[in-house]
## 1
Amino acid sequence: MERAERIPFVKMTGSGNDFILVDNRNGLIKPEEGPLFAKKVCRRKLSVGADGLILIEKDGEVDFSWRFYNSDGSEAEMCGNGARCAARFAVLKGIVDSPSMTFRTLAGLIKAEVAGERVRVQIPELHGLKLNIDLRLDENRTAKVHFVNSGVPHVVWILDTKEELEKVDVVGLGRRIRFHENFSPAGTNANFIWVQDRQSVVIRTYERGVEDETLACGTGSIAAAAITVALGLTDPPVSLVTRGGEILRVFFEYDDGRFENLFLEGPALVVYEGSLWDETVR
Ligand SMILES: N[C@H](CCC[C@H](N)C(=O)O)C(=O)O
């Protein structure tokens, strides 16, 4: 990257899942530089710090394209909370001239609708739904889990009580699932949920590529909503109570294994704007 003394960015939070957003339509950060740049700027205390980096790029057909990186520098196909932040960022920065837009991700085209601080994004599709998997965790323990890809891969483990959800070792068990041979080589995110009632689920998520629990996960919320509806435990729209306390809402129609018109809705807030000094990303 030719040395740009300072790189303007906006820090945003999608229900506690936090991101650094950069308008990279000038191509300053080259594709091959993305992973290391992301790893450096997402370090808490040593740089801006975030769960992920979002680079907005030019696109010849739709409003814009994006590159999404987890804080470990891995590029992910999609990010639900990040998509909501990217849509609001595009409106605030005049990258689009309408509150409705379409942008390109590795998981396909995302339609977004910005209404003030709240954003709805339409997820292209769910695939690979697999219910009631007996997952061997170690020689003495198996867990009944479920799987779906909601833009990125997600395992969902349903716990019986709120207390169990409070006490579960999200990082220890989450890491075991994330690196489980069943899901290699791509790995998976791991969600632990408790079904509060037919309209709401409390969720905690261990995120692949952050390698820790995050305060919210958009695609994880979609996965949990889809799986609990498919199991007959909830009815859409489903509210997801995230670890940060914010509520994410997932809308869709479900009929005999088919999910239609999948939307994720929730707040996407600006925390601050800044300019990144070159000396901390060399
Ligand atoms: N860490 C995820 C990508 C971000 C997902 C999450 N932040 C969301 O809001 O969907 C992965 O690598 O699969």
## 2
Amino acid sequence: MAEAIVRLEQVCKAYNVGEPNETEVLHAIDLELEAGGFLALVGPSGSGKSTLLNIIGLLDRPTSGSLSIAGEPTSRLDDAEITHLRGHEIGFVFQSHMLISAFTACENVMMPMVVANGRASAAIEQRALDLLDRVGLTPVANNRALNMSGGQQQRVAIARALAMRPRLILADEPTGNLDTQSAEGVFQLMRDENLASGTTFLIVTHNMALATRCDRIIEVVDGRITQGQRPQG
Ligand SMILES: Nc1ncnc2c1ncn2[C@@H]1O[C@H](COP(=O)(O)OP(=O)(O)OP(=O)(O)O)[C@@H](O)[C@H]1O
């Protein structure tokens, strides 16, 4: 079996801890994501998919339980170490692409590399242009994100997510706002990247037609994994 890029053991997440309205939304989650997988995360609205994604993406911490990324337990890491791990190992694609709309496609893709490097450079710009070429956007590389279609913006977001060569990309309904044809293009682009580079993808989707084309479907219902807890085989 492939090495696990992510391992959760008995992860619980509660909101409003210690207050009268404290609610636990994830209950004792055990989950393994195999390196190189192309994985769908599905479940009803409010079941805890985004909460789980935020924990795996180190954007939020579990209330209890443990999370390892690439074999590294995260519970003892301080905030600076968490930020470093997140910045280098994990890329994000959100439903609303979260691009800086006044920046060009190229500038948006450069952004994580500029932040990591402390300043822009010709090499960073060249890598951004190469990534935009990979997602089919060379002709609009210097267009502002503001003036691009939803499908194009999502392709820029994928290029940006790939910029730091992360081992894991977390995508929260990346095709949710797109028409069928654009959604297919964005989905296929992620699949091609997964196969070409071995980057692991975990994709939250309500689209079962797309989910069934992934290597594995992980289902969350009421804060518990009901299907796909471990890789098959
Ligand atoms: N910051 C928060 N404070 C309090 N409750 C929250 C917070 N974030 C999420 N919740 C609650 O946690 C539960 C799970 O929410 P979550 O967004 O993870 O579900 P989801 O499966 O991603 O839903 P959807 O498919 O609608 O995006 C919901 O009941 C939600 O109201």
